[in-house]
Amino acid sequence: MLESPTRFEWIRGSGYAIAMGLPLLLSYIIDAPQTLAFVALGAMFALRLDPRHGTSQQVFAIVGGMCLMIASGALGVLLVGHRELAIAALVLIAFLAGQPRPEQAYLSLLGKFTAAAMLLAEMGLPATLNTALAYLVGALLALLISFIVAALAKDDPQGWSPATELKQLMAGDINGPLFGLTLPLTILAATLSGLALHAQHAAWVGLTVLFVMHVNDANTWQRLRQRIIGTLLGVLIAYMLVMWLPRDFYPPIILVLALFIPAVMRQSYQWFSLLISVLVLLVIDIAMVHQGGDLQLIRWRFFDTLIGCLWVATALVILRFAKHWWPEKAKSKNKSNNSI
């Protein structure tokens, strides 16, 4: 059972609700649903990057992080039609994204968001100057809200320091090349398999690998199970909402659901997967209103996630064998050197 949100989670949840709900509520009076939807998504991503630790670090983390995501998306646009270069860029960016340890919360999340931006743009999702500006406006809105939240929750115990994480990374506190190479190769294999299976957006398969795969084996198996269950339930709920409710109901629903993001994120990855799935799918449906909505794509979300999770499971088994084989190889090599 989920616990009631703490005081800090109510405050931060209110920040998410305002950051995502305000742009979408404007869609009632401004006929620009796609732009406003991307503002809401940009605000959500930016608040996830909020370190809650010092004004200067908040500015650097949120604005700098969003600019890096936009630049990565621009690279993805430039690489459209150049699949070999796109694959090389994906391997490089995903390798870098796999280096921060799980406890390095900001860098780990920023690496995933950056890789996701390049992958989605290269696969053909909307990535125009208007989209980039919408994301940036969302980030600035999130920054303003984060200042207000920080003032209301000065003793929030869950902040982190991007500067400290960067020093740790530069000092060599990383996951290492084994996991770093396994992650991009698994993303690549999953994305190519999605293309071969004619998935509507094969990028979602690769994104599943990016966000589910974890350096801790036990944690990854648990996250796989929770991701599949949470995503399935989230897709079913989003599908029913899109099928039976008019789009005019979406903004207040998104506002209310966003209120619980911090509490659910702390307590359960399964319920967090459900909540984020519903939120993102509803926002995307608003963004695609002029193209008839996202109903057809929603039907693919669970299958995309399932394919990605199967690839994570395969990579995890191979990685476990590699971890056992590598020390033995190094040990036998040392023995042979000593015998010479």
From TrEMBL:
| Membrane topology label | Multi-pass membrane protein
- Could you tell me where this protein is found in the cell? Membrane
Q: Which UniProt keywords apply?
A: Membrane, Transmembrane, Transmembrane helix
Q: What domain of life?
A: Bacteria
Q: Where are the transmembrane segments?
A: 25-47, 59-79, 85-102, 133-153, 174-192, 198-215, 227-243, 249-265, 272-290, 302-322
- Reply yes or no: does the keyword Protease apply: no
Show the Pfam families listed in the entry.
Answer: FUSC_2
Which parts of the sequence belong to the Integral membrane bound transporter domain? Answer: 190-313
UniProt-recorded name of the protein: FUSC family protein
Q: Which species is this record about? A: Shewanella submarina
Task: State the taxonomy lineage.
Answer: Bacteria, Pseudomonadati, Pseudomonadota, Gammaproteobacteria, Alteromonadales
